What we know:
The protein has four helices and nine strands; from the N terminus they run ββββαββαβββαα. The termini are far apart. The chain is α+β, with helices and mostly antiparallel strands.
Amino acid sequence: MVPWKLRSLNSRRGIVREIQLFSTVLRQPDRSLAVLPNGDLQKDGLINYTCLGISRVDLAFTLKYEADVEKARSIIMEIMTGDERVLAEPPPVVVVMNMGENGLEMQARPFVRYEDYDPVQFGFRQRITEHLNAAGITPAVSQQDIQLKSLEETR
């Protein structure tokens, strides 16, 4: 049997090297082997992300509420459409997922060939951050305001 790739099995990721009677051998990205009981595979199921040859990369980021969302969307779309690893079909999108506690929670969602998944995921995070910062669009960060009062003031 030819090895096949999957993205996740029991929160493990890698290439299925062998399916044995009682276990499945998985080569993980760090080149270690994981031997997983087949009972877990039957109970938890399996999602094969590679059977179609493409995967969607979900890149989450949060912008301040006052950020120019359309400008940010335009910058990120330019990054995605300018990279030959990003497929034209299905087309990449940038979406607002939620109005979060600290800002607008957004996602860039390019589709790529499976073998380009990790390079795009890791490389795009840095490129998006650099391009947004250069345009004066800074990410939202969690913050808390703390007021300190002396004991004298509390009496």
